[in-house]
Structures are given as structure tokens and as C-alpha cells.
Amino acid sequence: MKKILLIAALAIGFTSQAQLPANSPAPDFTVTDLNGNTHHLNDYLAQGKTVILDISAAWCGPCWAYHNSGSLDDVYETFGQGGSDEVVVLFVEGDSVTPVEMLYGTGTDEYGRVPQGNWVENTPYPIIDSGLIADLYEITYFPTVYRICPDGIVNEIGSASATSIRNGINSNCVTTPLVGLSNFPHSNATEFRSCVNSGALVTKVRNLGTNTMTSATIVLKENGNPIETKNWTGNTTQFNTATITFTSATLTPGATYVAEVTSVNGGSPLHPEQAIGDIAVNLAQVATSTELTLNIFTDEYPEEIKWRVKNGAGTVIANGGPYEGENSTMITETFSVPAGTADDCYRFELQDTYGDGWGIGATQHGVQIFNGDALIFEKFTNDAFTTLPVLAAFKTQVVLGVGEFDSNAFAIYPNPSNGLFNIRTTSSATILVSDLTGKTVYSGSNINDGAVLDLTALQTGMYIAKVKTATTETVEKLIIK
Known about the structure:
InterPro entries: Redoxin (IPR013740), Secre_tail (IPR026444), Thioredoxin-like_sf (IPR036249), Thioredoxin_domain (IPR013766)
Keywords: Signal
Distance between the termini: 53 Å
Largest sheet: 6 strands, mixed
Protein name: T9SS type A sorting domain-containing protein
Strand order of the largest sheet: 1-8-7-4-5-6
GO molecular function: oxidoreductase activity
Domain Thioredoxin: 20-174
């Protein structure tokens, strides 16, 4: 359904034009980008630069997919102003009826079409809002990507990869290959999710340099402090990515983790600021209730949206969708997780029956899960997908069934308290207290009747106490007020 609407929208704008023929002289233009900078095509060509034009529309799905592929980012960072300054990369909003706010991910055009997302955010090269260029180059479909050589000859190159663009320029536009930059590692942000407070963090280093990356030193930092140094060797050519896995370690909830490339091929990175990659560490939060609330933020096509929850064994324990009715809205549902006798780790899967994800529309798209009033999981996305799995979305901890707890054998009181809890027990107890992220904040053994559990050093809030005695094993919620 989405594809049909897209084709119809294209026909509205371009029924009277024909695409610019191959090997044509490039029509000159002078335009201003969103930041107020002027771009004159013939000036760039006179400087011996090749110009790459991505002529797209903010509402166009294939345009958004190519934009997010990162191909033009790589070309710009390597050969553009971000690199050796041999190539100019320009993004052109080519639909004259598209208001400029759609480039920022908001608003609609006169046909009711909505933006695919925020085109400006994280785009390093200039963005131009100009239907003039689309008219000059006789655009008949979006996206249309052109290569304009320094001799002024223009050819369409399709949604080309960075490697293809580089090779095309070297073969058709210049007498000597593009110089680029020699040792240029670019660290990408990565994510780590787990139901336990330990694991092996991963970073991805993309080689934007002309030299093959054969060795690198990468330092893993927690809150700015080095905790591991990795000496990597391999064979990663330009525009390819090396995956570096660190040693499994205990992780601190709430800490900031980065991986920094301090050397490559025996030398310093040319742009050290781009050699630092964030690692988002998301440790699953505990669902202390068996009844959870799910908020689904739909896109323009709720009838294509589905979801499901799987336990650690891969069994589906809850699902929902598709949905009918108003689009781009919030739908609230509840679902249950079983009260188990063992810890479990759950994954959440977003699904789209059409296969282009939850990305159509200017509103946020995704899900939130609440345990009572506490937000324990959220995932928002504009990505294209049929199924988007999120591992370690949330977890449950041991909850014993009715009759397994002998209140005469053990008790913690008062609860809530100011952090001091009295212990009543008929036998020696072991107590393990964790916060809602699963981090252990107290552990004690050989705790006897009449003891006082002192948790006054902890912040106010809810904690989970696992208690084991000779006759009792239970989990209790402790509240510090």
C-alpha cells in the first residue's frame, strides 16, 4: 500500500518531464543551503572538483533509505570538505511543493505527504531546498543521484555505494586517482544490551583512509577512565568496517562507555575526534509485576504494525496488532509475563507486514513498557524492517509461588522504612539486595534473628531482596522512603 501511494505521488509532480540524457553538459546553478552558504556549480568545477548531487524528496521512502545508507557520508568525510576536499557532495530537496520544515522531520505538503524523518540531523554535507535544480536536471523520479565531472559532463549514477562513487570518479573524471586521506579510522556508535551486569562490549571502526587498515590500538573507557586496551590486527580496506570485541567485564549501570582508536597502522589517526565511538550500554530493568503496560506509537500505517514478546527459551508469551483506525497515534495495551521460579530475560520484536518498518510520518514511532508507573523499556525507530528484534528488553527475577514462604520463619520490617530493616528469622539467612537494574547493592550471609539490615546509604526507591534460609527462599520488595 505504501508503494502504491509513493508511485502515485511521483506521477503528480513529473508527468511532463524527461530525464536529462547521459553525458549532457551540466546546467549551471547558484543556490543557498539551509545554513546560508552559497554553492555555485561552475566555481566548483573550475576548482577541479567533482560534484555529487543527491536530488531527493523529504517524503520519499527510497530516498530516505539511501540517505541512511551512509554512502554519501563516507564520500564527504573522505573526499569532501571533511576530508581531502576533492569532491563536493550536495543534498537537494527537489520537490517544489515540499515545505522546508519537512527536512527537519515535521509538517506535511499540499498532498498530505509526511516526511520520512529528520534529514538535517547528523548530515555532514550541505542541504539545499531548491526545486530549481530538479527542473534544470529534468528529474522524473526520486532519488536521482548525479555525478558531475570537472569537465562539466553529468551522468546519473543511481544509489551508488561510496566505493562505486570513488571508482566512478577515478575512471571518468580525473587523470590521477583521488588522493583522500591515508590513515583515517572512523568509530561508529554501537549498542550493548544484556540482562546481566557483565558482557563483552563491541565497537565498529570504519576505514575511511586510502591505506588498508592492518593494525590499530583501541582503548575502552568507562566514565573517561581506561579499563582495557585492545591491539587489533586485520585487513580492512577503504569503506569497510572492522569489528573489535573487548574482554567480558563487569559493567556499571549508568556509566558512559566509549571506544577510542589511539593509533592506526602505527601512527596517529588523522582526525582523532572521529576515532571515538560511543557504546550505549543498556542493562535490562526488572519487571516486578506480572502485568505490564505497553504503549505503541504507530506510524501512518497502523494496519501493518505488529509486535510480540519472547522469553529466554524463544517462546512467544504475548503479541498484538495489526491495528485499525487513526494513524500516527498512541495505542495502549496490557500483557502478562508468567510468575516464574527462575530468572528470565525477554526480547521484544517490532514487526511490519509490508517490510518498510514504522517510519512513515512525522511523529515518533516505537514502543514503551511500563511496570506500574516505572518505565522499564522503550524503543523508537525510523528504520526499515520486517522484524526488528530487541534483545534483553527487560527481565524478571525469582518469584516463589503461594505457600512457599513461611512468614513465621522469616520477616523484614518495617517496610517501607528509612533504610533500617529489622530481621526476624528462625535460622541463619543469606540476603542479596539489588536495584531495579539488577545491580547488587548489598549482600550478607549468616544473618541471624534480631539483626538490623542497614541500607541507609542507598537512595530512596524500590529494591529487590533475595532471601534464603534453611527453610525459606523468597523475593521481597524493599522500599526506602
